Amino acid sequence: MKYQSQKVAYAYFLAAMGLFGIQVLGGLLLGWIYVSPNTLSEVLPFNIVRMIHTNALIVWLLLGFFGAAYYLVPEESEREIFSVKLAYIQLAILVVGTLGAVGSYLVGIHGGREFLEQPLWVKFGILVAAVIFLFNVSLTFLAGRKTAITNILMTGLWLLCLLWVFAFINPDNLSLDKMYWWFVVHLWVEATWELVMAAILGFLMLKLTGVDREVIEKWLYIIVATALFSGILGTGHHFYWIGTPGYWQWIGSVFSTFEVVPFFAMMSFAFVMVWKGRKNHPNKAALLWSLGSSTVAFFGAGVWGFLHTLHGVNFYTHGTQITAAHGHLAFYGAYVALNLAMFSYAMPLLRGRAPYNQVLNMASFWLMTGGMAFMTFTLTFAGTIQTHMQRIVGDYYMDVQDQLGLFYLMRFGSGIAVVLGALLFIYSMLVVRREVVKPGPVVKDAAVPKE
Fold first, then answer.
1. What is the mean pLDDT of residues 48-60?
2. pLDDT in tens, 254-279
3. How far is CA 413 from CA 31, 395, 420, 442, in A?
């Protein structure tokens, strides 16, 4: 750690990991409700648990992004953060807003729009926090050194915050409502967040591999260009069946097909950088999470997204468990694993614990990734059966659900692995002590090699 103000990132990472734990536990409860539908049905209904699960996911990922920016920008800009106090105020607003939203959900107060259920006052709080963040980081960025990493990161974060304005637009017309809704949801995760992902991944590759900055920057600009080219008009794959003109079926199909490209480029980028790297960095856990993130993102967001993105296929599959399979693997690979990679790299430095014992961290990677992969396959098979029985044969929804019980039980088992992996990761970050490096044997009168 080179700059004192980078310590503010530690508070963001702690808050993010706390919400991460809540999010995966909520997901495990949801998985069990699929197996036993009446579980807590009167005390904690399914729709409330789902809100907490998805909202906690979004918020902790954003906290991770903000923390990564507060760690990364000073190092890249070669100057301290403009105001550490503003950064802590922003964090306080986000934490209070999150607790307020969860409290509102528990008593039945919510906006009703998926992912955007937050009460109006919470939405305004998030907007204020976003403005504080942009002001703080932008002044730091503008006053310091400019790099491709910070240029891309700032572009992604500015667009991310500005798109939040569409969360306040809720027209009476349902088609318009869904269009604006996707402006937030899709253009976040399949456009602006991809820029943030590329920037953080580029920073990690720079630190972990020792590859020249010029090489990394060329890759990053290619990735960003393909992400924006495909992601913006790729929004059309959400407009197929919401009452919009038919030309969106072709626009969405064509540009969604290209959305595989940036994720393939990011996976290729990560492995090529490691292959070219000259540095044997001691933090193998951060490198594992970085490579895992880019690889799982390619399969989850790229391959599984393509499986049901063409409108001829999507006509039958939309809203089935195939969508859930894609969503889980894509979010885990592209953003969850990326944040955990950043935590694995930065937290030992922030806590002065490098080098640290990484065995549990790396074990958590395989537990979580294996569990999520098995969950994806299980949901894919369940969705395929659901599509045939419900959309082709025409069986009733609940009759079909009864036939999927075995798949839901297997999904719950995979969820246990994911939760254990998540708790193990948090433990490895917060509890495991610095690794003790044993001194090697002393060799007397050893010949000193000449240069």
1. 94
2. 999 999 999 999 999 999 999 988 77
3. 9, 27, 11, 51
Residue 277's pLDDT is what? 85
What string of DSSP letters covers 7-38?
Answer: GHHHHHHHHHHHHHHHHHHHHHHHHHHHHSTT
CB 372 within 8 A of CB 293: no
Look up the pTM and report it.
Answer: 0.93
Taking the CA atoms of residue 338, residue 340, residue 341 and residue 346 in that order, the dihedral angle to the nearest 10 degrees is 130
Cα atoms in the Cβ-side hemisphere of radius 13 Å centred on 202: 31
**Least reliable range by pLDDT among 57-66, 119-128, 176-185, 429-438:** 429-438
Does the CA dihedral 161-193-99-16 come out positive or negative? negative
Torsion, Cα 162 242 231 294, to 10 degrees, reads 100
- Cα 442 off chain centre by: 48
Q: What are phi and psi of 356, to 5 degrees?
A: -125, 165
- By residue count, the chain amounts to 451
3-class secondary structure, 111: coil
Cis peptide, bond prior to residue 449, ω within 30 of zero: no
Question: Residue 312: CB partners within 8 Å, gap ≥ 6?
Answer: 253
State pLDDT tens for residues 300-311: 999 999 999 999
- Determine the pLDDT at residue 432: 67
8 Å CB contact between 199 and 137 = no
Instruction: Say how many C-beta atoms besides its own lie within 10 A of residue 222's C-beta.
Output: 15
Which residues share a beta bridge with 434?
356
DSSP bridge partners of 356? 434
Distance CA 192, CA 186 (A): 9
Strongest mean pLDDT among 37-46, 112-121, 369-378:
369-378
DSSP code at position 294: H
Note the pLDDT of residue 113. 86
Q: How many Cα neighbours within 13 Å face the side chain of 179? A: 11
